[in-house]
Design goal:
heterodimer; A: alpha/beta; six-stranded mixed β-sheet; B: about 260 residues; mainly alpha; MetI-like fold
């Protein structure tokens, strides 16, 4: 039962000229076990900052952050899918996943097998030996997701992973992501500025304000899965969410 | 069939054609001069063969290569330490900037003279000359490589809880590699030029010494034979060995075509 509890998160950066930029001004949200939560906010509102705090890349912030694994006192493992895939271009697709497994401390004998299993999951089993610079953006994005899943995380953080893809590829990948998620249930925090993407993917949406960012409110999406993008109720939800964002 | 063959091997064919025509031009010109001034390529190649077979060339080449390799390895070591330090801290960079620039400007001949005056007629004089000459060049390359490191990949590794050793091995070194290859090319190119000067001035063996010796005898044929044999070995080293190694190390990069 892996959950995230974030309470009243504050963070400011010091600019090079000495000025202070306030990025987060009281962000609060929680996730339930195996829930798909979207953080929806305008571009440049500090969404990535929130994820970087959760993963531990940013350590000087104020507020409360609890990553809990119920009943156990062990460390919660987090998988991170970046905005751009951030693959190692000098390693094959398979070795990119192997790298993440090695970094996380998976036994050497198991790494190859696990990497192949996850390449298979994203439909790239035949491209295991390909180098990233010979792959399409869609393929690279898939590997970024497979890499995060391969370490068997309790929580999956996704930072607008489809925002730099063309819409058709992005749609295809959203469908695939939900398929994979239905097989390998995780608690997911998915950051996006795309309202339609949020209502299509999420169980629950937290709407964020402009910088300095606060959580405005949350919207529960009560639609059965698998969802259809053209579903009229989905579009109603989108309208509702956009209204609450003030658009 | 013939067309496909040409298309496939055009680069090798063109290089061979270019070399053959160069030798033909040389031969043609040599018809108009005395052999003491411009010997025909046949005479020179016969000499090349003779010094190769007698083992004379090999024994002198051994000393020259030894000096190059030692000097180069030393320079690489210093440059890596210095370059990484300079790339990581702007204070270290500013501190050593002047030294690197001065080092780049001092002529190779000056370094040869200075190191022979300091260390005498010994191997180490040549090694020292090579090291001080090429260290600034390689250092600059390493600094450049450090500055162009992709920080987002290091962040990615941290997100996957990678330790420092793994980050250096799989993320930093592969990114520095192409800069190191460029530095090696350039550094070795300078090294062969200065080692010959140092040997000429103050050592009693090596290719430079032999060229100087035949210069003393005023034999153009032998000067050319030694120069050509040496150049040939260096070419094989650079294109055969280094070129292949680089191609292998950068096989993950698609070749760019304009």
């Amino acid at each position: 039962m892996a959950n995230i509890i974030v309470e009243d998160l504050h963070k400011s950066f010091i600019k090079e000229d000495g000025g202070i930029v306030e990025v987060l001004n009281g962000v609060t949200f929680t996730t339930n076990h195996e829930e798909f939560v979207c953080l929806l906010g305008p571009s440049g509102c500090g969404k990535s900052t929130i994820l970087n705090i959760i993963i531990g890349l940013i350590t000087d912030y104020s507020g409360k952050l609890i990553l809990s694994e119920e009943g156990l006192n062990q460390k919660v493992r987090i998988g991170y899918v970046f905005q751009t895939p951030r693959l190692l271009n000098w390693k094959t697709l398979k070795d990119n996943i192997v790298f993440a497994l090695e970094a996380t401390g998976v036994q050497e004998e198991q790494r190859g097998k696990i990497a192949e299993e996850y390449l298979n999951l994203i439909g790239l089993a035949d491209s295991a030996g390909k180098y990233p610079l010979f792959c399409s953006e869609g393929e690279k994005a898939r590997v970024g997701i497979a890499r995060a899943l391969a370490i068997e995380p309790d929580i999956l953080l996704m930072d607008e992973p489809f925002s730099h893809l063309d819409e058709i590829t992005a749609r295809r990948l959203r469908i695939e992501l939900l398929k994979i998620w239905s097989k390998k249930r995780k608690t997911v925090v998915f950051v996006t500025h795309n309202a339609l993407e949020a209502v299509y993917l999420a169980d629950r949406i937290y709407i964020l304000s402009q910088k300095p960012t606060t959580t405005i409110e949350q919207v529960q999406i009560d639609l059965k899965r698998p969802r259809i993008l053209e579903d009229i109720r989905l579009l109603e939800y989108q309208k509702e969410v956009l209204r609450r964002m003030g658009i | 069939m013939f067309k496909i063959f040409i298309r496939k091997h055009y680069s090798v064919l063109l290089i061979s054609l270019s070399l053959v025509s160069l030798i033909l031009v040389w031969w043609f010109l040599s018809l108009f001069f005395r052999p003491e001034f411009l010997p025909s390529p046949i005479l020179v190649f016969r000499d090349v063969l003779a010094i190769s077979v007698s083992g004379q060339f090999l024994s002198h080449m051994y000393y020259t290569l030894l000096r190059i390799i030692c000097g180069f390895a030393l320079a690489m070591l210093i440059s890596l330490v210095l370059g990484i330090a300079m790339g990581r801290s702007k204070y270290v960079e500013k501190f050593f900037e002047a030294e690197v620039l001065v080092g780049l400007t001092i002529p190779a001949l000056a370094w040869s003279v200075i190191s022979i005056m300091w260390f005498g007629l010994k191997n180490f004089a040549a090694i020292f000359a090579i090291t001080v000459l090429i260290t600034p060049v390689i250092t600059l390359n390493v600094v450049q490589g450090m500055k162009n490191l992709d920080k987002s990949l290091i962040e990615m590794a941290k997100a996957f809880e990678s330790n420092r050793g793994l980050v250096i091995k799989t993320i930093i070194i592969p990114q520095l590699l192409s800069y190191l290859f460029a530095a090696t090319r350039f550094g070795l190119g300078l090294a062969w030029k200065i080692v010959v000067i140092a040997e000429m001035l103050g050592l009693s063996n090596g290719i430079g010494y032999m060229i100087a010796f035949w210069f003393g005898m005023f034999s153009m044929k032998d000067v050319l034979a030694w120069t050509l044999s040496f150049t040939l070995v260096m070419l094989i080293f650079e294109y055969g060995l280094l070129g292949r190694l680089e191609k292998w190390a950068t096989r993950w990069r698609p070749t760019i075509s304009f």
